[in-house]
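User
Please review the sequence:
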Amino acid sequence: MSREDPQLKVRVSPELKERLVKAAEGGKRSLNAEIVARLEATFEEGTGHGPGSTRGSLLMDLLPAGLAGRVRSAAESRGQSAEEEIVQALEVAFPPPPSFSLDWFNEEWIGRILSAEPWDREDLVDKANEVLKANGDKYEVWLGDANTEDSAAVIFGSKGLKNVPRRPKR
């Protein structure tokens, strides 16, 4: 732009001016170029910023200036909006948790514990309980009492039931 282009005087708070200056420095632009780029972005279609949009540029406003500039550059090189770039990066960094099935757990762990040598069972029970803890911590596994007929049993149930007496076998 040149000096002959239309000019507009705008009053802003000192805090906003400071934020704009930092954003401009982080994005390697002049203060004027930063303001113009932000204004133009509010009218771009397909970015979530245009007229009638309810999204705004909240995600970008939350980023430190230098990071915001890098996100914009990456987004431009991939042909997508900065917000799409941020969401894509967050999806990679924070994938959904793996699904956990108690049926899978029973098949995988209870059978393994029962088929193990008696001296290995306690370690396997500890590992099984780590898996349960990582997936909600609602259940636990324990070995039957060594002084009863249940000594080879693996018991799986809700926490707190470990010391509840079981009916004797008939």
User: Anything to note?
Assistant: The first helix runs from residue 14 to 26. The beta strands are 139-143, 154-158.
